[in-house]
Amino acid sequence: MEREFSQLNPGYRLLLGPGPVETSPRVLRAMSANLLGHLDHQFLDIMNDTMELLRKVFQTKNRLTLPMSGTGSAGMETVMVNLIEPGDNVIVCVKGVFGQRMRDVAERCGANVYSVEVPFGQPIDPADVRKTAKEVGDIKLIAVVHAETSTGVLQPLPELSEIAKEYDALFVVDAVTSLGGVELKVDDWGIDACYSGTQKALSCPPGLSPVTISSKAEKVIAERKTKVQSWYLDLSMIQNYWGQERVYHHTAPINMIYGLREALQIVLEEGLEARFKRHQQNSDAFVKGIEAMGLSMIAPIGYRLPTLNAVRIPENVDDLKARNYLLDKYGIEIGGGLGDFKGKAWRIGFMGESSRRNNVILLLAALADAMAVQGHRVDVGAAVEAALEVYNG
Ligand SMILES: *Cc1c(COP(=O)(O)O)cnc(C)c1O
Q1: Which residues contact 98 (CB under 8 A, 6 or more apart)?
Q2: Which of 115, 196, 239, 387 suits a disulfide with 285, CB 3.0-4.6 Å?
């Protein structure tokens, strides 16, 4: 018997996890616009717009700034496969799952990887990186995750950039959960290669990975002795499609690029500074509410990521039960812990469209309910009051 398929109709969800997050109807509408061919001059104009908008959001003048086809991890692989040749010494800073992924990718490229590690939940100490750099000496690149989505730790970058400069190494930054939500100055901070993802603070569905490459890093790519082992991610070919030559490489995901272009425009209409401030305020309010409930944040003060808020789960509360309760009773999705924090942390994203006062207040109340049904009672009134104080003073 033929199985009958019903019409696709995903139920309503409020996405407050580590991504994907809420997206603007403007982005969804842009994505449903007429399909064009990938070499149509109308589409080439849209590609040019997208590159120009990306430069503004990355705060860079880098020529080689474009969205790679694929999610954030594709951006990570793009940067690593293009910059690393077998036998290169690289330093990878590991403070969570995404640092571990960077290390894995670098190893697969045949690099000699030296990792600078701290326990999950802590920031990297630049002194440790300097020590390792001194020991290794000849270093191709230093890589670090700006916003570690597995722990909610925000890594300050300028000092690490200085160390890279001292050793004439390229400075590589994962900005998947920071671009568009947290201050990130690619040029001013001396970042040579940076990548992000669309479904985090840019508030777009998943599918593209914005990448920017400095002229210094471009030169390193041009002078490679070996071919990039990935045909699909080889920037020397991809730039011939995004540049003047318009040589076909692979078919661009046209409608995804419509969506990204619209999302970037929304970011710039709000203004970067205003957007960063909004993310900070909503995170501050949420943290105050969480603390008023007697719960605590994973990341130490001064290193807390406003886009991704990692909360320690009380010992007597079951992680999965609580998250399923939020999903069933409220239609709210939040993230569970990753790696060392599996079952021990909730990862709450207030990014892009999701970073709103109503979501903060709603989630505080919903979390209190989800814990109360497991016998862990908290003062929800005090939590809401503490959060409102951040907004109303
Ligand atoms: C989400 C994320 C990635 C991976 O992105 P995907 O879109 O899931 O491939 C990489 N790094 C960080 C810091 C992330 O948060």
Answers
A1: 145, 148, 149, 150, 174, 176
A2: 387
